[in-house]
Amino acid sequence: EKTVEVLPMKGYVLYQGSNPTHKAIIISLYEQGISPADIALKTGHTQQAVDRYIKAYDQVLALVKKHHDAISITQITGRSLNTVRQYLRLVKDFYPKLKVATPQR
Q: With 0-12 CB in 10 A as exposed, 13-18 as middle and 19+ as buried, what is 35?
């Protein structure tokens, strides 16, 4: 079986306290090319939860690529600013060349 390592990227962004967020772990595995089914197995999350995280991340990523800001992303997706901010931080870590505005709290 293939061993998967969660990337310790910019820990201050992905980590809350001493534990990585569920989103960060799942999206890190996803960005490493691990299948959603394997992510569900490795993280103990349901397939539906993994699919939800990935869908939301892909949606935010696509909107960032179209130059939407955090506020318009919240309006388009219906997600809270806090949730959008979390996904924007992940996008920023995985796609450092993209211009990502992550508003402060």
A: exposed
Q: Are 27 and 54 in contact (CB under 8 A)?
A: yes
- 14: which 2 tokens? 């992905």
- What is the per-residue pLDDT across 4-35, written as a single tens digit (0 to 9) for each? 555 444 343 444 444 568 899 999 999 999 99
HSE-CB at 75 with a 13 A cutoff on CA atoms is 5
- CA-CA distance, 20 to 37, in Å (whole number)? 20
pTM, full prediction: 0.78
Distance in angstroms (rounded) separating the CA atoms of residues 88 and 103: 9
Which of 25, 50, 35, 49 has its CA nearest to residue 2?
Answer: 35
Neighbours of 12 (CB within 10 A): 6
Three-state secondary-structure class, residue 102: coil
